[in-house]
Amino acid sequence: MTPGTHWEVESTFDVSTSADVPDLTLGGELDARAEQVHHLSATYYDAEDLRLTRAKITVRRRTGGKDDGWHVKLPAVETSAGSTGRTELTFPLTDSADVPDEVRTAVWGYARHDELIPIARIDNERHETVVERGGSAIVEFCDDHVRGTRLRDGAAISWREWELELVDSERGGSVDVLSRLSAACLDAGASASPLASKLAKTIGPVDDVAAPASSAVASMLRADVDKLLSGDAGARLGLEVGIHAMRTSARNLQTTLNAHAKELRAAGEAINAGRPGSHGVEISSLERELNELIRMLGKSRDVQVVRARLHEVSDGYPRDLVPDSVRDRIFSELDREEQRTAKRVTMGLENPRYLALLDSLDDVIEAAGEMETPTDAQRVRSGRPKEIISSGKKGLGKGKPGAPTSDLVVQGAQRQFKRFDKARARVEDELDSLNLTLAQREELTHTLRKRNKALRRTAASISSKEMPQVVSLRSASERLHDVLGDVQDSVTARQWIRRISRRAEAAGEPTFGFGVLFEHERFSSERALEGFADEAATVSAAFKEMQDSQRKLRAARKAKSPKKGKDKK
C-alpha cells in the first residue's frame, strides 16, 4: 500500500489557559473561517528503548478529526525558503491497535526486529480556524487543549498550545503569512515552544540517538549511518531527497571503511576474540553489500538527475528545435523508468539483507570505537610515514571523546590522497600521450572523480581549527567535484537521449530534437573537461601545502620543547 504524503511546515507556541486568540486576519488583510472543534485521541508507538523518539521519528494511531489514521512523521529538515518542515506519511485507520505491517516497514531501518509498543496517549480538544486569502486556504490555526499520558507509569500532564500549519508550503507568500501570524501569537502572550511535539511534552526530553562516539572514525561512521537512516523512509517512497541522502551516505561509508580497513579489522578481531563463533569485522563483505545498495539507489537517482537536467536544457530551446513530441517522449519514458527503479528500491529495502547490512554497520562502529590513536613512536616502528601530523592534541582514542580530529583520520586522508594523486598523474599522462576520443577521456576522468570523492569525504572530517589549511583542500576538491560531476551527468544524459531517440525513430517519430539535445550535452562535457586538469592540480597543491604547514608546526614545537636529560644536570 502506498501511503499518502504531506509536507508539514508549522510553528508551535505554549500559551496560558486564559490567553485570548490573536487577530488571525492581520487587520482585515486575511479571512478567517468559522471555528470548528475536533476531539482527537492518539496513541504513540516506539521500541522499548525509544529509538524512534530519539531519532525524531513519530508513529501514532489517531482517531477523530479530518485525518484519522496511522501517521509516521520523519525528522525535520530545513526548506529552501528557510522554514523547517517534516514529511508526514498517512495510512488508513485499522480496527486493531497493533501497528500495521505497512507502518512498520516505513520505519524498519530504525526499529529493525524490535516490537513497537504503545508509549503515550494524547487527547486533544482542537479548536481549528482556517485562514484564507482570496478564498484559498493558507494557514490552519489550532487552539489545542491537550492532556498527555505516559503509558509506562500513568503520569499525566495537561497544557494549552497554539499551532500554525501551512496548508500549501509551495504557495507563494505562504511562508511570509506564517511568519506574520507567528509574530501575532507572540504579541498575544504566547511563547515559542522549546519542545515542538506533543509527544516530547508528554514523555519529557530524551537523550540523543547514541552516546558520543569513542573515536573519530566511529564518529564519522555513525554520522553517515544516521544520514543513511534519515533517508530510509523517503527512499522507500521514491522521494528524491531520501534516495539522494541514502546514496551519498552509503558512498561516504564506503570511503571511510576503505581508508581504515586494516585498523578496523584489527579492532574487530580484538572485540570478538572472546565471542564464540564470531568472524570479526568482515570489511570486504560489508563493502560488497554497500556496493549493491549504491547500485540500486544509483539507478533511481540517475534517472531523477537526468530528468531535471533535460527539463532545464530543453527549456532553453525553442519549440521548432526541440518540439513537444520530443519533450513528451523523453519525460514520459523517464517517468516510467523512475517508477520502475523506485519499486526496486522499495523491494531492496524490504529485503532482510538490508537489515543485516545495518546490523553489520553497527558492529563496525563498535569496532571503530576501540581504535586507539597510534603514537609517533608506534608509527615509526611500524614504518608508517609522518607526512601529516595533528596539532599536537590527543586524538579520539578509546574512551576519550571530545577531540575533533585523530591521527587515524589524518592517516585516512593521507591514503586517499596517494590514490588520488596516482590517478591524476595517470590521467594527465594518457591525455598528453594519446589522441583520445571524448568518450575515452570521460571514462579516464571517471576514476579520478571517484578518487576525488573519497578524498573530499575524508577532508570534511578533519578539523579546520586544528588544520586551517584543510579549508583550501576542501574548496579545491569541491570545485573538481563539480566539474567532473557535470561531465558524468552529461554522459548519463546522452546515454538516455540516445536510447530514447532510437525508440522514437522505430515509432516513426521525428528525431532532430534529440540530436539538438545530444549535441548540447556533448559540448557541455567538452567544455567541462577543458578546465579539469587545472582543478585537479589545485587539489594536489592544496594537500601538499597542508602537509608542509603541519611539518613546520611540528618542527617549531620540537625546537621549543626541552630536550630529554637537560633538566637532570
Automatic annotation (TrEMBL):
Domain CYTH: 6-209
Keywords on record: Coiled coil
Boundaries of every CHAD domain copy: 210-541
Residue spans of biased composition, Basic residues class: 552-569
Region (Disordered): 372-405, 548-569
Matches recorded under PANTHER family: CHAD DOMAIN-CONTAINING PROTEIN, SLR1444 PROTEIN
Protein name: CYTH and CHAD domain-containing protein
